[in-house]
Amino acid sequence: MQRSPSPIRTTLQHLSSVVWLLVDTGKEMGDRMMRGRLPFRFSIFFEQTDRTGVGSIALISLVSFFIGLTMALLTGYQLQTFGQERLVPGLVGISFTRELGPLMTGIMIAARIGAAYTAELGTMTVSEEVEAIEAMGIGPLRFLVGPRVLAVFFLLPCLVVVSNFTAMSGAALISRWAFDIPFTRFIDTALDSMLIRDIIAGTIKSFLFGLIIGLVSCYKGLTVKGGAAGVGNATTSSVVTAITTVIGFDTLCNIVLVALFDT
C-alpha cells in the first residue's frame, strides 16, 4: 500500500514550486529585455493595476474605516477607565501603520484579486489556452504571470496608504464624538507617536504581501487539474493559502523586527 506524502513534505514542495515560478518568470522577462524588447504588453499591466488598485479602493476604504472606528471606540473606553484616553490616537496610528494596515489589506486583496487571478489562469489552463500561447512562441510566464504579480506587488503599498488614512479618519471621528478629542489634536498625537521604523516596517510588509499573493494565486491557477471542479477547488485553495501565508510571514516579520529594534 502506497503511503501518502506527509503534509510537511507537500508544503515544502509547493513552496519550492512557487519560488521557481518567481525565478522562471524573472528569467523570461530578463531574456526579453536583453533582446531590447518589452517584457510584456504594458496595456495588460495597466489593466491589472487598475483592477487591483482602483477597483479595490472602495472595499479597502470601507472596511478600514469601520475597523479604525471600532478599534478607537473599544480601546478608548478601556483607557478612559484609567484616564488615558489621550493615548488612543497613537495606539491606532501605530497599530495600522505597522501591523493592521498591511495585514488587513493583504487579506482583502488575497480574497478579491487572488481568487480572480486563480480562476482566470485556471480556466485558461484547463481549456489548454496556456499551451496554445506557449505553442505560438510566447512565454506564458512573462505574458500571464509577470503583469499580474507586478500589479499586486506595486499596488498593495498604495492600498495600504488608503487603508491607514481611512482607518485614522474613522478613529478620529469616533474619538471626537466619544472622547472629545479634536481632529487636529488627534492627528498631531498620532504623528508624534509614530516612528520611522514603524513606517518602514509597514512598507516592507506591504511589498512582501503583494509578492506572496501574486505568486500564490498565479501558481494555483497554472497547476489546476480536473476541469471546472478543479478551478473551483484551486480558487478556494488559493485564497486560503494566500491568507495563511500572509499571516505567517507577518508573524515572522514581527519577530525579526522585534529582535532587530528591541521594541
From TrEMBL:
Domain of life: Bacteria
Iron found in the keyword field: no
One example GO MF annotation: phospholipid transporter activity
Entry keyword set: Membrane, Transmembrane, Transmembrane helix
GO CC aspect terms: ATP-binding cassette (ABC) transporter complex
Signal peptide: none
Protein's recorded name: Transporter
